[in-house]
Amino acid sequence: MPAVKIVGDPLPNIPWQPAPEGGDSPVWRHRAGPLIGWNPTPSTARVFNSAVVAHDGAFAGVFRADHRDGRPALHVGRSADGLSWELEDEPIRWVDEDGRPYKPTYAYDPRVVFVEDAYYIIWCTDFGGASLALGRTHDFRTFVRLENITTPYNRNGVLFPRRINGRYVVLTRPSDNTHTRFGDIYLSQSPDLVHWGRHRKVMSVNDPRWWQCVKIGAGAAPIETSEGWLVLYHGVNEPCNGLVYSMGAALLDLENPAKVLYRTRDYLLTPQEPYETTGFVPNVVFPCASLQDPETGRLAIYYGAADTYVAVAYAQIDDLVAHIKANSELVDGDGEVVR
Length: 339
Ligand code: BMA
What we know:
Elements: E1 27-29, E2 44-55, E3 58-67, E4 72-79, E5 86-87, E6 94-95, E7 101-102, E8 107-115, E9 118-126, E10 130-137, E11 143-145, E12 154-159, E13 168-174, E14 185-190, E15 197-203, E16 215-218, E17 223-225, E18 228-237, E19 244-252, E20 260-263, H1 274-277, E21 285-293, E22 298-305, E23 309-316, H2 317-326
Parallel strand pairs: 6-11
Antiparallel strand pairs: 1-23, 2-3, 3-4, 4-5, 6-7, 8-9, 9-10, 10-11, 12-13, 13-14, 14-15, 16-18, 17-18, 18-19, 19-20, 21-22, 22-23
The site of beta-D-mannopyranose (BMA) has 10 residues, from strand 8.
């Protein structure tokens, strides 16, 4: 058993490959490259920034698919092994809480997490501007749209997998109406998934020189461990040819997740392989999900690559947590509870 405890059900069948010989990073890529490539179904051009979960002894997910007219939509995918995915060609058909059909004008960057008795999906939707929408499913067949979590503008929302001190908690990243050149991570709390408040600031961007200096946003749903909530997040910087998205990690206090305990000084993954540096939008590594097995401590991290592919990388919990602690550098305000 790993020394760091992961809270959750055993998942012995998640994708896995051991670390490459002589590798010096606690996160390593799947050797065969991306899982999903260009034009995977008749209506879709590129599938990336997608969220997968364990479901019914296998895996299911909500995938961001940009259609051949350029518009992003959410599609269901299913997989026996977490690597080979069967994607539905039709977008998800939402109904509202009264059973009436609801069709988002666009939908992107989903995150999915199981809380109590259902899978909850947060995605970026049009609400007079990009905002965070919330939906629920039990079976990946019927999808119910719930109340939006935020007003515009907010594009990155991730729900914690359990209530903390009786409240649901969501990480969000308020922004503006363009490709914003700012953005910090905040947290909001709710007794019922409808009313959100008790907002707190969690993490800020770093000094202007580094990989997370322009904006940051929560990636995969937080993973509960004996060392804190493990949050994989993206950080953005802007060299002269455009924005570059990399992945880092933080550990947040278990009882007060507005408090940052540790945060990686260096990125854990940055665009490096051709499928990350070349594609529809070059130089993007955008984590949206992870699968983890408490018994082996294995993590499979799903990320979008270059706004074109779904890719996976691996980590082992003991090594990852040790690395985060040994290479942590907090930013001004991290670790304080800012209201
Ligand atoms: C962000 C979002 C992501 C995308 C990234 C890079 O603003 O739109 O969906 O992966 O830009 O293009």
